[in-house]
């Protein structure tokens, strides 16, 4: 009902910018139709989530922002029990992995823009999704250790989720897995791969709509063999493999895809957005819980 053709979508009409900060009327209707969202359900859901949090031993001493709780209600289509279960999983993830939710280093994370390791593209897909581009071959573990990669994902995902448009519409990923196996393969450990899967799919309150794999590699095949065992059939069906980048345009408008993949986008540097997300006042409330230590 709400799908729009990627072929005919135009910037300024169907294609909206990454930074929105509000839900246009079209997407309010989409939230109501797809997520069962109404003003009454928001009020009721937030109240129930807070009551459940106070009674659970893992969450009773944690203060959650309303905006943060709403992310979980939206990702679970206002099923309060499932939303609270995911909130608890997220809280436990933070407690078990404090190293990736603290000690954020400004210079390290901002380098992902310069190196084009992880990028959030400046325009949304025609259906309102944000688009994350991961270019594996640009990652040098010697200068950007795997722990810093994990912290960067936390900042990118939780920062993007501050926008209600992203909460409602979700994310699509384009993963360029061209890779130097000598540099990367040793980091494709079961524990690292499981953390990525568990953290993104079962803890982070984001709707994963599609993943698109381009430039297949030995590193990716090794990682995919492990990760696929954890994935449900529903998720694996959302993973699309592309022999050539041309087939990306069955899913994405050319206007929003970088030129090296056959698109029309010349500049996809999101430095200003990342600087804003990394400001001390924003970092103080990232993830809706306690204040993390931040190094600027």
From TrEMBL:
<protein>
    <submittedName>
        <fullName>Clavesin-1</fullName>
    </submittedName>
</protein>
<dbReference type="GO" id="GO:0016020">
    <property type="term" value="C:membrane"/>
</dbReference>
<dbReference type="InterPro" id="IPR036865">
    <property type="entry name" value="CRAL-TRIO_dom_sf"/>
</dbReference>
<dbReference type="Pfam" id="PF00650">
    <property type="entry name" value="CRAL_TRIO"/>
</dbReference>
<dbReference type="InterPro" id="IPR036273">
    <property type="entry name" value="CRAL/TRIO_N_dom_sf"/>
</dbReference>
<dbReference type="Pfam" id="PF03765">
    <property type="entry name" value="CRAL_TRIO_N"/>
</dbReference>
<dbReference type="InterPro" id="IPR011074">
    <property type="entry name" value="CRAL/TRIO_N_dom"/>
</dbReference>
<feature type="domain" description="CRAL-TRIO">
    <location>
        <begin position="126"/>
        <end position="269"/>
    </location>
</feature>
<dbReference type="InterPro" id="IPR001251">
    <property type="entry name" value="CRAL-TRIO_dom"/>
</dbReference>
<dbReference type="GO" id="GO:1902936">
    <property type="term" value="F:phosphatidylinositol bisphosphate binding"/>
</dbReference>
């Amino acid at each position: 009902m709400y799908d729009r053709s990627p072929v005919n979508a135009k910037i300024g009409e169907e294609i909206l910018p990454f930074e929105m900060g509000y839900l246009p009327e079209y997407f309010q209707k989409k939230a109501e139709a797809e997520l069962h969202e109404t003003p009454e359900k928001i009020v009721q859901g937030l109240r129930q989530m807070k009551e459940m949090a106070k009674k659970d031993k893992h969450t009773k001493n944690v203060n959650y922002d309303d905006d943060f709780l709403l992310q979980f209600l939206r990702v679970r289509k206002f099923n309060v029990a499932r939303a609270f279960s995911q909130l608890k999983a997220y809280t436990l993830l933070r407690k078990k992995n404090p190293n990736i939710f603290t000690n954020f280093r400004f210079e390290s994370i901002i380098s992902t823009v310069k190196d084009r390791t992880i990028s959030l593209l400046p325009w949304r897909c025609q259906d309102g999704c944000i688009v994350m581009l991961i270019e594996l071959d640009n990652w040098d573990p010697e200068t950007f250790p795997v722990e810093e990669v994990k912290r960067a994902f936390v900042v990118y995902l939780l920062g993007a989720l501050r926008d209600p448009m992203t909460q409602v519409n979700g994310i699509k990923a384009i993963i360029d897995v061209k890779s130097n196996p000598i540099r990367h393969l040793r980091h494709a450990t079961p524990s690292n791969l499981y953390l990525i899967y568990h953290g993104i799919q079962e803890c982070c309150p984001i709707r994963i709509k599609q993943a698109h794999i381009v430039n297949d590699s030995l590193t990716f095949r090794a990682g995919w063999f492990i990760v696929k065992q954890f994935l449900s059939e529903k998720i694996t069906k959302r993973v699309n493999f592309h022999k050539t980048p041309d087939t990306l345009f069955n899913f994405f408008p050319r206007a929003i895809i970088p030129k090296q993949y056959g698109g029309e986008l010349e500049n996809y540097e999101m430095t200003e957005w990342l600087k804003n997300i990394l400001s001390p006042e924003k970092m103080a409330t990232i993830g809706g819980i306690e204040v993390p230590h931040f190094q600027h």
